[in-house]
Write a structure and sequence with these properties.
Oligomer: heterodimer
Number of strands of chain B: 0
CATH topology of chain A: Rossmann fold
Number of strands of chain A: 13
Order of helices and strands of chain B: HHHHHHHHHHHHHH
Helix content of chain A: 25-40%
Strand content of chain B: under 5%
Number of helices of chain A: 7
Low-confidence stretches of chain B: 274-282
CATH class of chain A: Alpha Beta
Mean pLDDT of chain A: 75
Radius of gyration of chain A: 19 Å
Radius of gyration of chain B: 19 Å
Largest sheet of chain A: 9 strands, mixed
Distance between the termini of chain A: 29 Å
Largest interface: A-B, 34 and 36 residues
Helix content of chain B: over 70%
CATH class of chain B: Mainly Alpha
Mean pLDDT of chain B: 87
Strand content of chain A: 25-35%
CATH superfamily of chain B: ABC transporter involved in vitamin B12 uptake, BtuC
Structural class of chain B: mainly alpha
CATH superfamily of chain A: P-loop containing nucleotide triphosphate hydrolases
Low-confidence stretches of chain A: 1-9, 73-77, 213-219, 223-248, 250-254
Order of helices and strands of chain A: EEEHEEHEHHHEHEHEEEEE
Structural class of chain A: alpha/beta
Number of domains of chain A: 1
Chain lengths: 254, 282
């Protein structure tokens, strides 16, 4: 089946000319990007550049004003079953008590006998299986969310800063899990500010930046708030690559 | 024991007890998903605004509670409709409903000639006014709602706990939201004859809030909510009969007392009482 652009299908996600407005503010304007199938794609950019907005729009959680989104070359609503999403944090209502075991049951249909293995996959202590999810730390909640999404066996998994609340010892384990599921064929998109992780593991990078500078035809400097990284082989140039303005640069094969 | 046998042989007490069990169970269930969404105020807003329907019913004739139910369905639908709007919050809208509904009702009442003795029973409840047709209607609503709860259960839980994930999973969140809001509104009106407009919110809010003090899992919260709601209603009705007290306030006082006890129990233990629903392994 051809993609939106009519090209042979090789991207699991394709966004064309996406415009998203939130609270009367244009967050994404005529943005296009793709996620290659089976890749580990990183979504980077300054705070407020629209990374989470882009992911939520792709997932159908936010409405788009214009543009096209396809996941797996099917209409978005028909493809949701294969998509997983782990937000940076979830504000679970404190008024409704739910245990870790119950959360896994409702989100991923995990039966009690499978809870231990499901939690072990993300190095979550099984001794906490009976605890209310609101009593877990931020890092534990993040691991639980990831465990539930992995158990749903998605083809495409979006992770919003998956290591932001995890302690140092847990980071390595989560990274190993991410690489393991990527190697098993799952396409993973990670929102991050961790440029070291990007340079070490990325197959593909989507850079959203309010101020980006493309100083040569085939290179791009994508800035974020803490560092700069030079990215080779620009996939798509902006209308005026020498100008500095709000916009997006899409880069491949860093 | 003799007293219990005597009570359950009285027809109006039979109707009151039967109706209260179904109402307590339903409102306890709806409250489990309404209160965590911080919409407890909805109960007061809808119930008070429904006085407009009762006033219209008294003015135009017909069954006032049917008019009240119609008003409640409209208001519940509006609440469900504007849920995603950032312009008006639920709290504000409920406040508008309450003020608008009550004001319009009082104006209509003032235009209605004659003494309105039934108004007091709508405000504070009157178990003598519960008829067998009321019970048949309530039974139909009760079982219909239970069936809908069964089919919407996972969506209700997930949209309450983790709304974004429910959308990613493709669950029918919108239909469930309408069921929750409209169902709650109708259940509140169904309880007006028992507890009255002023006190009906007690059954929606207090049993769940009390259960939440002493439970730590969804399963135990739901079971304890049902226990508190049903036993509180029955105890209130029986005590009101024995001591010749108004029924609605008696039920509400029992529920409030339960809440205070659970609050103290939770503070004393500093941990949930029912804390070992799941066996923990090392």
């Amino acid at each position: 089946m051809p993609s939106i652009t009519g090209q042979p299908l090789e991207n699991i996600v394709e966004c064309e000319n996406l415009t998203v407005i939130r609270d009367s503010k244009e967050i994404l304007c005529d943005a296009s990007c793709c996620v290659p199938r089976h890749s580990l794609t990183f979504l980077v950019g300054e705070n407020g550049s629209g990374k989470t907005t882009l992911v939520k729009t792709i997932l159908g959680l936010l409405p788009k004003l214009a543009g096209e989104i396809s996941i797996n070359s099917e209409i978005l609503t028909n493809s949701r079953a294969v998509v997983g999403y782990v937000p940076q944090s979830v504000d679970f209502p404190k008024q409704l008590q739910m245990t870790v075991t119950e959360y896994l049951k409702y989100t991923a249909n995990i039966i009690p006998e499978e809870v231990e293995d499901t939690l072990a996959r993300v190095d979550f202590p099984f001794t906490h299986a009976g605890r209310p999810i609101t009593q877990l730390s931020g890092g534990q909640q993040q691991k639980l969310l990831l465990a539930a999404e992995l158990a749903r066996d998605p083809e495409l998994l979006f992770l919003d800063e998956p290591l932001s609340n995890v302690d140092h010892s847990g980071e390595k384990h989560i990274l190993d899990v991410i690489l393991e599921i990527k190697n098993s064929g799952v396409t993973i998109v990670i929102i991050t500010h961790d440029w070291q992780m990007v340079s070490s593991y990325a197959d593909h990078v989507i850079c959203l930046n309010k101020n980006f500078i493309c100083d040569q035809p085939n290179s791009c400097i994508c800035k974020n708030s803490i560092s700069k990284v030079k990215i080779r082989q620009i996939q798509k140039l902006t209308p005026d690559p020498t100008d500095t303005h709000d916009g997006y640069c899409y880069v491949d094969n860093i | 024991m003799q007293l219990i046998i005597e009570i359950i042989q009285i027809p109006f007490m039979q109707r009151a007890l039967l109706g209260s069990v179904m109402l307590a169970s339903l409102l306890g269930l709806f409250g489990t998903f309404i209160v965590p969404r911080k919409l407890g105020f909805m109960a007061d807003g809808i119930a008070h605004a429904s006085l407009l329907g009762i006033a219209i019913g008294i003015l135009l004739g017909g069954i006032p509670l049917v008019w009240a139910a119609a008003v409640a369905v409209v208001l519940g639908s509006i609440l469900a409709l504007v849920d995603d709007s950032s312009l008006v919050t639920h709290d504000s809208l409920i406040g508008v409903f309450l003020a608008g509904g009550m004001s319009a009702a009082i104006i209509i009442m003032s235009l209605t000639p004659g003494y309105k003795p039934e108004l007091f029973s709508y405000l504070f409840g009157n178990i003598l006014s519960i008829t067998w047709p009321d019970i048949y209607l309530l039974t139909g609503f009760f079982f219909s709602a239970l069936i809908l709860f069964k089919y919407q259960w996972r969506t209700l839980v997930l949209t309450t706990i983790h709304r974004e994930l429910s959308s990613v999973l493709g669950l029918r969140a919108r239909a469930t939201k309408y069921f929750l809001f409209v169902g709650t509104s109708v259940a509140l009106i169904a309880g007006v004859k028992l507890l009255g407009i002023v006190l009906i919110s007690a059954l929606l809010i207090i049993p769940f809030t009390s259960a939440n003090q002493v439970s730590h899992s969804l399963r135990s919260t739901i079971i304890v909510t049902q226990l508190f709601a049903i036993s509180g209603s029955i105890a209130g009705i029986v005590l009101s009969y024995i001591f010749d007290l108004p029924t609605g306030p008696s039920v509400a006082i029992i529920l409030v007392a339960t809440f205070l006890i659970t609050l103290v129990a939770a503070k004393v233990n500093e941990a949930p009482i029912w804390k070992h629903d799941h066996v923990e392994k090392n």
